[in-house]
C-alpha cells in the first residue's frame, strides 16, 4: 500500500510540475490574404540607354568649355572650342587667293567669249578657282571640327579634358546620354532566367530613395550567359520622369507571377515545406503546400488556415507538444 501511494505521489508531482511550468513566449503570425508575387531578384546599376561620344577629328588644344558633367544640352549647342587660330590665319590667306582666282576666272569668262583669250587659258583659270575654293572648304571643315557641338538633346554624363590640354584626334571630350530613357542593367540567376520575358513588370527600389517604389519593364535579355557567375544580363527600361541617376544601385524584382487574394505567410516561417503552429498552448508541426515564393512572403496553397497561429522564426529546439505562450505580431508585407 505504501509503495502504491509513493508511485501515485510521484506521478502527481510530475504531472503538476509539468503543467505548472511557465510557458515560453514565442512570436507567431496569422496567415494573411494578399497578392502573391513570384519574382526574380537582382541588383543592378542605372545606365544610359544611348551614350554618344563627342570628339574632334583633329588633334588640338582645348581652349574653352561651355558645359560640364551633368549639364543639359540641346541639339546644335556649342559645348567646347579647341584652338583654331593657325587655321583661321590659313583660312584668311586661302580666301584671298580664292577671291583673286574667282576674279580672274570671271574676267576670262567674258574675254573667251570675245575671243581675246584662248580656251586653254579659260580652262586653267577655272581650274585654279575651283581648287582654291576646295582648299577654303577643306580648312573651314577643319575649323568646324574644332567646335564641339551637341548632336542631340540630352545630358552630359562625362567630360574628359581640361582647358589647355592637348586633345588627340578622335578622343571623346564629352559623353552624351540622349535619345531614350535611362535603363537598369542587372544580372539574373540562371535558375530564374527561364521565367523572365520581354515586357514583364519590374518593381524597383533604390537606397537613394528609401520610401519610394519605381516601375520598369524588361527591355532585353542577353542570349548568352556568364558561365562563371551563372547569370544572364537583363536590361530594364525606366520611365522618362525617373529620379534615378546614372550609376545608382537599384534592387530589381522582375515579376513573373501574381495572384490576388492568396493566403500568405512570412518566408521565415516555412522550413522544408513545414510550419510550426501553436494550438491550445502547445506546438505542432504540420506540412504545407507552397505556391508562389516572394522575397519576404510565401503563398500557402494547403495546410494552414487564416486563424492559425504560425511560429514566425522556427528553430531546431522546437519540439512537438512543447508548451508555448504565443505572442501575436503583424506580418511584414512585400
UniProtKB/TrEMBL annotation:
Gene3D superfamilies: 2.40.30.170, 2.40.420.20, 2.40.50.100, Helix hairpin bin (1.10.287.470). Residues 54-173 form the Multidrug resistance protein MdtA-like barrel-sandwich hybrid domain. It holds the Pfam family Beta-barrel_RND_2. Keywords: Coiled coil. The keyword Hydrolase does not apply. This is Membrane fusion protein. Residues 185-253 form the CusB-like beta-barrel domain. It comes from Legionella lansingensis. Residues 88-142 form a coiled coil. Signal peptide: none annotated. The keyword Coiled coil applies. Belongs to the membrane fusion protein (MFP) (TC 8.A.1) family. GO terms for cellular component: efflux pump complex. SUPFAM superfamilies: HlyD-like secretion proteins (SSF111369).
